[in-house]
Design goal:
Blueprint: H1 9-40, H2 46-53, E1 55-56, E2 58-60, E3 63-67, E4 76-78, E5 80-81, E6 95-96, E7 99-101, E8 108-112, H3 117-124, H4 141-145, H5 154-163
Parallel strand pairs: 1-8
Antiparallel strand pairs: 2-3, 3-4, 5-6, 7-8
Helix pairs in contact: 1-2, 3-5
The structure holds zinc ion.
Zinc ion binds at residues 68, 70, 73, 75, 102, 104-105, 107.
Protein backbone atom coordinates (compact mmCIF):
# COMPACT_ATOMS: atom_id res chain seq x y z
CA UNK A 1 0.00 0.00 0.00
CA UNK A 2 1.28 3.41 -0.91
CA UNK A 3 1.62 5.94 1.83
CA UNK A 4 -0.63 8.89 1.90
CA UNK A 5 1.25 12.16 2.49
CA UNK A 6 -0.60 14.86 4.30
CA UNK A 7 0.60 18.45 4.53
CA UNK A 8 -0.59 20.92 7.13
CA UNK A 9 -2.49 23.84 5.55
CA UNK A 10 0.17 26.25 6.89
CA UNK A 11 2.85 24.35 4.97
CA UNK A 12 0.85 24.49 1.78
CA UNK A 13 0.21 28.20 2.30
CA UNK A 14 3.92 28.79 2.95
CA UNK A 15 4.90 26.88 -0.17
CA UNK A 16 2.38 28.88 -2.21
CA UNK A 17 3.77 32.18 -0.88
CA UNK A 18 7.34 31.08 -1.56
CA UNK A 19 6.43 30.15 -5.15
CA UNK A 20 4.75 33.53 -5.68
CA UNK A 21 7.80 35.29 -4.24
CA UNK A 22 10.15 33.38 -6.56
CA UNK A 23 8.01 34.17 -9.59
CA UNK A 24 7.90 37.87 -8.67
CA UNK A 25 11.68 37.93 -8.16
CA UNK A 26 12.20 36.29 -11.55
CA UNK A 27 9.95 38.83 -13.26
CA UNK A 28 11.80 41.69 -11.61
CA UNK A 29 15.16 40.20 -12.62
CA UNK A 30 14.02 39.94 -16.23
CA UNK A 31 12.75 43.53 -16.16
CA UNK A 32 15.97 44.74 -14.56
CA UNK A 33 18.08 42.97 -17.18
CA UNK A 34 16.02 44.44 -20.01
CA UNK A 35 16.36 47.90 -18.46
CA UNK A 36 20.15 47.54 -18.12
CA UNK A 37 20.39 46.42 -21.76
CA UNK A 38 18.40 49.45 -22.87
CA UNK A 39 20.70 51.71 -20.86
CA UNK A 40 23.76 50.02 -22.39
CA UNK A 41 22.33 50.72 -25.84
CA UNK A 42 21.72 54.32 -24.84
CA UNK A 43 18.03 53.96 -25.64
CA UNK A 44 16.59 54.87 -22.26
CA UNK A 45 17.92 57.37 -19.78
CA UNK A 46 18.92 56.16 -16.34
CA UNK A 47 16.34 58.42 -14.71
CA UNK A 48 13.58 56.66 -16.63
CA UNK A 49 14.67 53.17 -15.69
CA UNK A 50 16.33 53.29 -12.30
CA UNK A 51 13.52 54.37 -9.96
CA UNK A 52 10.98 51.65 -10.64
CA UNK A 53 13.33 48.67 -10.88
CA UNK A 54 15.31 48.67 -7.67
CA UNK A 55 16.70 50.85 -4.94
CA UNK A 56 20.29 50.76 -3.80
CA UNK A 57 20.99 50.31 -0.10
CA UNK A 58 23.16 52.97 1.51
CA UNK A 59 24.40 53.63 5.02
CA UNK A 60 23.31 56.66 6.97
CA UNK A 61 24.39 57.17 10.56
CA UNK A 62 25.34 53.52 10.82
CA UNK A 63 22.08 52.08 9.49
CA UNK A 64 21.31 50.54 6.10
CA UNK A 65 18.54 52.56 4.50
CA UNK A 66 17.16 53.21 1.02
CA UNK A 67 15.38 56.19 -0.47
CA UNK A 68 11.87 55.61 -1.80
CA UNK A 69 12.00 55.46 -5.62
CA UNK A 70 8.56 57.02 -6.13
CA UNK A 71 9.07 60.43 -7.78
CA UNK A 72 6.82 62.35 -5.39
CA UNK A 73 7.83 60.55 -2.20
CA UNK A 74 10.65 61.84 -0.04
CA UNK A 75 10.60 58.91 2.36
CA UNK A 76 13.48 56.62 3.26
CA UNK A 77 13.20 53.28 5.04
CA UNK A 78 15.43 51.04 7.09
CA UNK A 79 16.29 48.04 4.90
CA UNK A 80 17.65 45.69 7.53
CA UNK A 81 15.92 43.47 10.00
CA UNK A 82 17.12 44.42 13.45
CA UNK A 83 15.97 44.82 17.03
CA UNK A 84 14.56 48.39 16.94
CA UNK A 85 16.26 49.11 20.28
CA UNK A 86 19.62 48.42 18.59
CA UNK A 87 19.18 50.92 15.74
CA UNK A 88 22.27 53.11 15.54
CA UNK A 89 24.18 50.89 17.96
CA UNK A 90 27.53 49.74 16.56
CA UNK A 91 28.08 46.02 16.13
CA UNK A 92 24.39 45.07 16.28
CA UNK A 93 23.14 41.97 14.54
CA UNK A 94 21.14 42.57 11.37
CA UNK A 95 19.87 40.85 8.26
CA UNK A 96 19.33 42.48 4.87
CA UNK A 97 15.81 42.92 3.52
CA UNK A 98 15.45 41.83 -0.10
CA UNK A 99 12.43 43.99 -0.79
CA UNK A 100 11.98 47.69 -0.17
CA UNK A 101 8.51 48.62 1.07
CA UNK A 102 7.65 52.29 1.55
CA UNK A 103 5.40 52.79 4.57
CA UNK A 104 4.35 56.22 3.25
CA UNK A 105 3.36 55.61 -0.39
CA UNK A 106 3.37 51.79 -0.56
CA UNK A 107 6.03 51.55 -3.30
CA UNK A 108 7.75 48.14 -3.41
CA UNK A 109 10.85 47.01 -5.28
CA UNK A 110 13.94 44.87 -4.84
CA UNK A 111 16.95 46.24 -3.02
CA UNK A 112 20.41 46.22 -4.55
CA UNK A 113 23.03 45.37 -1.93
CA UNK A 114 26.80 45.69 -2.20
CA UNK A 115 28.45 42.25 -2.01
CA UNK A 116 30.54 43.36 0.96
CA UNK A 117 27.75 44.97 3.00
CA UNK A 118 28.82 43.20 6.19
CA UNK A 119 32.41 44.47 5.95
CA UNK A 120 31.29 47.98 5.04
CA UNK A 121 29.13 48.34 8.14
CA UNK A 122 31.74 46.66 10.35
CA UNK A 123 34.38 49.19 9.31
CA UNK A 124 31.97 52.11 9.68
CA UNK A 125 30.89 50.86 13.10
CA UNK A 126 34.41 51.44 14.41
CA UNK A 127 33.87 55.18 14.11
CA UNK A 128 32.91 56.61 17.50
CA UNK A 129 30.54 59.24 16.09
CA UNK A 130 27.52 57.54 14.47
CA UNK A 131 26.95 60.57 12.22
CA UNK A 132 30.21 59.76 10.41
CA UNK A 133 29.10 56.20 9.57
CA UNK A 134 27.91 56.79 6.00
CA UNK A 135 28.31 54.96 2.70
CA UNK A 136 26.87 55.60 -0.77
CA UNK A 137 26.67 53.21 -3.72
CA UNK A 138 28.71 54.19 -6.79
CA UNK A 139 27.19 57.11 -8.65
CA UNK A 140 24.37 57.82 -6.16
CA UNK A 141 22.95 61.06 -7.52
CA UNK A 142 22.26 62.70 -4.17
CA UNK A 143 25.85 62.15 -3.05
CA UNK A 144 27.39 63.17 -6.38
CA UNK A 145 25.42 66.44 -6.28
CA UNK A 146 26.84 67.29 -2.86
CA UNK A 147 30.39 66.18 -3.65
CA UNK A 148 30.21 63.22 -1.26
CA UNK A 149 32.31 60.18 -2.20
CA UNK A 150 30.37 57.23 -3.64
CA UNK A 151 31.21 53.58 -4.19
CA UNK A 152 33.89 53.57 -1.51
CA UNK A 153 35.61 50.23 -1.04
CA UNK A 154 36.28 48.69 2.35
CA UNK A 155 39.93 49.75 1.83
CA UNK A 156 38.80 53.37 1.23
CA UNK A 157 36.77 53.32 4.44
CA UNK A 158 39.68 51.83 6.40
CA UNK A 159 41.95 54.59 5.04
CA UNK A 160 39.41 57.20 6.17
CA UNK A 161 39.31 55.58 9.59
CA UNK A 162 43.12 55.69 9.81
CA UNK A 163 43.17 59.36 8.78
CA UNK A 164 41.02 60.11 11.81
CA UNK A 165 42.89 57.86 14.18
CA UNK A 166 40.17 55.18 14.17
CA UNK A 167 41.48 51.62 14.12
ZN1 LIG B 1 7.38 56.21 -0.84
Amino acid sequence: MGELELYAPQLVERARRELARQQAAELVAVGQQAALELIAQGRVSLTMVEPTNFVAARVQAGEWIADCPAPDCQNAEFVSEKDPRRRGVAGSRWLPFLEFVCTVCGARCPIQWPADAEEIIAVLDRRPNPMTRNWWPAGAKLAVLTGTPTGQTVADLLAENAEHGVR
